[in-house]
């Protein structure tokens, strides 16, 4: 578990532009807001 306000661990994700984006590539150049929510595209 990560505490609120803690630095996120580095990870890579596929983007909608068919490229891979690494969180650390934004370090020092942009602010990043990570939002996680459950049940995307599921009937609830």
Structure, described:
- This protein has strands at residues 12-14, 20-22.
- The chain has 44 residues and is mainly β.
- A two-stranded antiparallel sheet has the order 1-2.
- A hairpin with a 5-residue loop joins strand 1 (12-14) and strand 2.
- It is flat.
- The two termini are 26 Å apart.
Provide tags for this entry.
single chain; 44 residues; mainly beta; two-stranded antiparallel sheet; 14% strand; flat
Write the layout of secondary structure elements.
Layout: E1 12-14, E2 20-22
Antiparallel strand pairs: 1-2
Number of helices: 0
Order of helices and strands: EE
Helix content: under 10%
**Which blocks of ≥5 consecutive residues have pLDDT under 50?**
none
Shape: flat
- The assembly state of the depicted protein chains is single chain
Sheet having the most strands:
2 strands, antiparallel
What is the terminal separation in angstroms? 26 Å
Radius of gyration: 13 Å
What would a concise description of this structure say?
With 44 residues, the chain is an all-beta fold. The chain has strands spanning 12-14, 20-22. It is 0% helix and 14% strand.
């Amino acid at each position: 578990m990560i505490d609120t306000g803690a630095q996120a661990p580095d990870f890579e994700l596929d983007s909608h532009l068919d490229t891979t984006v690494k969180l650390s590539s934004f370090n020092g150049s942009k602010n990043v807001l990570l939002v996680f929510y459950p049940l995307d595209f599921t009937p609830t």
